[in-house]
Amino acid sequence: MPVVTTEKHQNIMVIISNNPPVNALGAAVRQGLVDGINAALSDDEIEAVVIRCEGRTFFAGADITEFGKPMQGPNLGEVIDRMEASDKPVVAAIHGTALGGGCEVALACHYRVAVPSAEM
Protein backbone atom coordinates (compact mmCIF):
# COMPACT_ATOMS: atom_id res chain seq x y z
CA MET A 1 0.00 0.00 0.00
CA PRO A 2 1.38 3.44 -0.87
CA VAL A 3 2.31 5.73 2.00
CA VAL A 4 0.58 8.69 0.32
CA THR A 5 -2.84 8.48 -1.31
CA THR A 6 -5.28 10.99 -2.74
CA GLU A 7 -9.03 11.33 -2.56
CA LYS A 8 -11.29 13.68 -4.50
CA HIS A 9 -14.13 15.23 -2.55
CA GLN A 10 -16.07 17.25 -5.11
CA ASN A 11 -13.63 20.06 -6.01
CA ILE A 12 -11.10 19.32 -3.22
CA MET A 13 -8.09 17.01 -3.56
CA VAL A 14 -7.12 15.48 -0.21
CA ILE A 15 -3.55 14.19 0.02
CA ILE A 16 -3.24 11.66 2.85
CA SER A 17 0.01 10.42 4.38
CA ASN A 18 -0.03 7.13 6.26
CA ASN A 19 3.58 6.39 7.20
CA PRO A 20 3.56 5.04 10.78
CA PRO A 21 4.61 5.64 13.39
CA VAL A 22 5.14 9.41 12.92
CA ASN A 23 4.55 10.15 9.22
CA ALA A 24 8.27 10.72 8.68
CA LEU A 25 9.13 12.59 5.50
CA GLY A 26 10.95 9.77 3.72
CA ALA A 27 11.52 9.60 -0.03
CA ALA A 28 8.22 7.83 -0.74
CA VAL A 29 6.27 10.42 1.26
CA ARG A 30 8.05 13.33 -0.42
CA GLN A 31 7.38 11.83 -3.86
CA GLY A 32 3.76 11.18 -2.92
CA LEU A 33 3.28 14.80 -1.89
CA VAL A 34 4.71 16.05 -5.19
CA ASP A 35 2.60 13.57 -7.16
CA GLY A 36 -0.52 14.61 -5.25
CA ILE A 37 0.08 18.31 -5.85
CA ASN A 38 0.79 17.65 -9.53
CA ALA A 39 -2.42 15.60 -9.85
CA ALA A 40 -4.43 18.42 -8.28
CA LEU A 41 -2.85 21.05 -10.51
CA SER A 42 -3.53 19.04 -13.66
CA ASP A 43 -7.20 18.43 -12.79
CA ASP A 44 -9.38 21.35 -13.85
CA GLU A 45 -12.15 20.23 -11.49
CA ILE A 46 -9.93 20.61 -8.43
CA GLU A 47 -9.97 24.05 -6.80
CA ALA A 48 -8.02 23.38 -3.58
CA VAL A 49 -5.78 20.83 -1.88
CA VAL A 50 -5.80 19.59 1.72
CA ILE A 51 -2.81 17.72 3.15
CA ARG A 52 -3.51 15.55 6.16
CA CYS A 53 -1.92 12.61 7.95
CA GLU A 54 -3.32 9.41 9.40
CA GLY A 55 -2.29 8.22 12.84
CA ARG A 56 -1.25 10.15 15.88
CA THR A 57 0.57 13.08 14.30
CA PHE A 58 1.14 15.36 11.33
CA PHE A 59 4.59 14.98 9.72
CA ALA A 60 7.12 14.69 12.53
CA GLY A 61 10.27 15.43 10.53
CA ALA A 62 12.87 13.49 8.59
CA ASP A 63 12.93 9.72 8.24
CA ILE A 64 15.83 8.66 10.46
CA THR A 65 16.12 5.36 8.58
CA GLU A 66 17.44 7.38 5.63
CA PHE A 67 20.23 9.05 7.61
CA GLY A 68 23.68 8.18 6.26
CA LYS A 69 22.27 7.00 2.92
CA PRO A 70 22.41 8.78 -0.45
CA MET A 71 19.58 11.29 -0.78
CA GLN A 72 16.67 10.20 -2.95
CA GLY A 73 14.69 12.90 -4.64
CA PRO A 74 12.67 14.86 -4.43
CA ASN A 75 14.29 16.63 -1.52
CA LEU A 76 12.13 18.53 0.96
CA GLY A 77 13.00 21.87 -0.63
CA GLU A 78 11.60 20.68 -3.96
CA VAL A 79 8.40 19.51 -2.27
CA ILE A 80 8.00 22.86 -0.53
CA ASP A 81 8.73 24.80 -3.72
CA ARG A 82 6.00 22.83 -5.52
CA MET A 83 3.48 23.55 -2.77
CA GLU A 84 4.33 27.25 -2.53
CA ALA A 85 4.14 27.67 -6.32
CA SER A 86 0.69 26.07 -6.55
CA ASP A 87 -1.91 28.37 -8.04
CA LYS A 88 -4.52 26.38 -6.13
CA PRO A 89 -4.64 26.90 -2.37
CA VAL A 90 -2.95 24.20 -0.30
CA VAL A 91 -4.19 23.68 3.27
CA ALA A 92 -2.38 21.76 6.02
CA ALA A 93 -4.71 19.91 8.41
CA ILE A 94 -2.52 19.59 11.51
CA HIS A 95 -2.95 17.29 14.49
CA GLY A 96 -0.42 15.98 16.97
CA THR A 97 2.92 17.57 16.23
CA ALA A 98 4.42 19.22 13.17
CA LEU A 99 8.15 18.97 13.86
CA GLY A 100 11.18 19.84 11.75
CA GLY A 101 10.32 19.17 8.13
CA GLY A 102 6.70 18.71 9.15
CA CYS A 103 6.63 22.28 10.39
CA GLU A 104 8.23 23.36 7.11
CA VAL A 105 5.51 21.54 5.15
CA ALA A 106 2.81 23.21 7.25
CA LEU A 107 4.37 26.65 6.77
CA ALA A 108 4.70 26.07 3.01
CA CYS A 109 0.95 25.59 2.74
CA HIS A 110 -1.11 28.65 1.94
CA TYR A 111 -3.35 27.98 4.94
CA ARG A 112 -3.18 25.91 8.10
CA VAL A 113 -5.94 24.49 10.27
CA ALA A 114 -5.17 22.64 13.48
CA VAL A 115 -6.86 20.88 16.34
CA PRO A 116 -6.43 22.79 19.63
CA SER A 117 -3.91 20.25 20.94
CA ALA A 118 -1.60 20.48 17.89
CA GLU A 119 1.99 21.57 18.44
CA MET A 120 4.41 23.14 16.00
From TrEMBL:
Q: Which UniProt keywords apply?
A: Isomerase, Lyase, Multifunctional enzyme, Oxidoreductase
Q: Which SUPFAM superfamilies match?
A: ClpP/crotonase (SSF52096)
Matching CDD domains: crotonase-like (cd06558)
Record-linked InterPro entries? ClpP/crotonase-like_dom_sf, Enoyl-CoA_hyd/isom_CS, Enoyl-CoA_hydra/iso
Q: Which GO terms describe its molecular function?
A: (3S)-3-hydroxyacyl-CoA dehydrogenase (NAD+) activity; 3-hydroxybutyryl-CoA epimerase activity; enoyl-CoA hydratase activity
One Pfam match, given by its short name, reads: ECH_1
KW Isomerase (keyword) present: yes
Query: Which named protein is this?
Result: Enoyl-CoA hydratase / 3-hydroxyacyl-CoA dehydrogenase / 3-hydroxybutyryl-CoA epimerase
The beginning of the lineage is: unclassified sequences, metagenomes, ecological metagenomes
